[in-house]
């Protein structure tokens, strides 16, 4: 399996442990990543608020780089997935827009064939649809038995369903639950697992943003989650880095819910040393999870 790899800005900035764990875990799974070192930011839904054409041009440039390689594109960010899917739809439906953007891209010798299109998949979708959970289960060296985990998706990988491939893959809103159970964890579900984390309003209404995060985390902790896992680094920032501030709005005492990136969860189940996955880098300590791991032997 081979993909053009778009790591996203956050995995190279605020969450470098996501990038490290993705590279390490993909190698263990036998997934070859051809990183788009010359790729650019997707705009994360922010640039499109000011100039949709600029945002579409940025995404078309990444698509053109992947098309030139002849490879499908893999990302590790729910937000990037949503932004990329929406850009693809606009470019496919509007030939005039695609032509104008390709005129701009031609300065770099790039061209995106919007009608041909490009397969763009988050790592979560690749795991379930391309790699397969039975194959994943066969490679697990450290089943995460005795550990309770809850999902947190992030908005952009769930909504709007009409452009995120739910017609072809109607179970995409259950993939995290399937993965959690595949690696041996006890699945914890809670009301806020598929709602907004609050990150988009963090800078304009911090109290509401933190309250949203606190509500989700409180629900998960009440249900007994040892940790949450997310395919979105922006959700990770609001649920992990902001958790100490969010605790003042929590509905439970002693809010303490570690948040793992999806590649970290898979890597732990594959028997990779937690230090290699940089699970010690989070704001909320993962020691509670790691202490339970020590009771689980790694099979050769």
Give keywords.
four-stranded parallel beta sheet, 300 residues, 44% helix, 13 helices, alpha/beta
Q: How is this fold's topology laid out?
A:
Blueprint: E1 2-6, H1 16-29, E2 32-35, H2 47-50, H3 52-69, E3 73-75, H4 78-93, H5 95-105, E4 120-122, H6 123-131, H7 133-139, E5 148-151, H8 175-182, E6 186-187, H9 206-222, E7 227-230, H10 233-241, H11 243-246, E8 259-261, H12 262-269, H13 287-293
Parallel strand pairs: 1-2, 1-3, 3-4, 5-6, 5-7, 7-8
Helix pairs in contact: 1-12, 3-4, 3-5, 6-8
Task: Summarize the model shown.
By secondary structure, the chain is an alpha/beta fold. The protein has 13 helices and 8 strands.
Commentary on this structure:
With 300 residues, the protein is α/β, with parallel strands linked by helices. It is built from 13 helices and eight strands. A four-stranded parallel β-sheet has the order 2-1-3-4, sandwiched between helices. It has a four-stranded parallel β-sheet with strand order 6-5-7-8, sandwiched between helices. The protein is globular. The mean pLDDT is 95. Helix 1 (16-29) crosses helix 12, helix 3 (52-69) crosses helix 4 and helix 3 (52-69) crosses helix 5. Helices cover 44% and strands 9% of the residues. Strand 1, helix 1 and strand 2 (32-35) form a beta-alpha-beta unit.
- Main sheet: strands, sense, barrel: 4 strands, parallel
* Structural class by helix and strand composition: alpha/beta
Task: Identify the quaternary structure here.
Answer: single chain
Tally of DSSP β-strands: 8
Element order: H for helix, E for strand: EHEHHEHHEHHEHEHEHHEHH
Overall pLDDT level = 95
Q: Give the percentage of residues in beta strands.
A: 5-15%
Instruction: Write out the strand line-up for the largest beta sheet, numbering strands in chain order.
Output: 2-1-3-4
């Amino acid at each position: 399996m081979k993909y053009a790899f778009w790591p996203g800005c956050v995995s190279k900035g605020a969450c470098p442990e996501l990038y490290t764990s993705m590279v390490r875990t993909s190698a263990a799974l036998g997934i070859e990543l051809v990183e788009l070192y010359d790729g650019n930011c997707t705009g994360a839904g922010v640039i499109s608020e000011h100039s949709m054409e600029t945002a579409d041009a940025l995404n078309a440039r990444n698509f053109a780089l992947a098309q030139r390689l002849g490879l499908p594109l893999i990302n590790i960010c729910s937000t990037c997935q949503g932004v990329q899917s929406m850009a693809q739809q606009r470019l496919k439906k509007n030939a005039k827009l695609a032509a104008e953007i390709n005129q701009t891209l031609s300065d770099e010798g790039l061209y995106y064939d919007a009608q041909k299109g490009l397969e763009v998949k988050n790592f979560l979708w690749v795991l379930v649809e391309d790699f397969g959970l039975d194959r994943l289960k066969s490679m697990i060296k450290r089943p995460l038995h005795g550990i309770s985990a809850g999902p947190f998706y992030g908005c952009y990988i769930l909504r709007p369903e009409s452009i995120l491939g739910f017609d072809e893959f109607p179970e995409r809103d259950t993939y995290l639950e399937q993965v959690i159970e595949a690696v041996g964890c006890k699945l914890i579900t809670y009301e806020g697992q598929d709602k907004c984390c609050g990150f988009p309003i963090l800078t304009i209404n911090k109290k509401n943003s933190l309250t949203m995060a606190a509500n989700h985390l409180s629900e998960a902790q009440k249900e007994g989650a040892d940790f949450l896992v997310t395919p979105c680094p922006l959700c990770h920032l609001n649920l992990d880095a902001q958790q100490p501030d969010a605790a003042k709005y929590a509905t439970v005492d002693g809010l303490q819910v570690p948040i793992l990136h999806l590649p970290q969860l898979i890597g732990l189940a594959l028997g990779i040393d937690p230090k290699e996955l940089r699970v010690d880098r989070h704001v909320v300590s993962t020691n509670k999870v790691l202490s339970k791991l020590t009771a689980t032997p790694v099979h050769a």
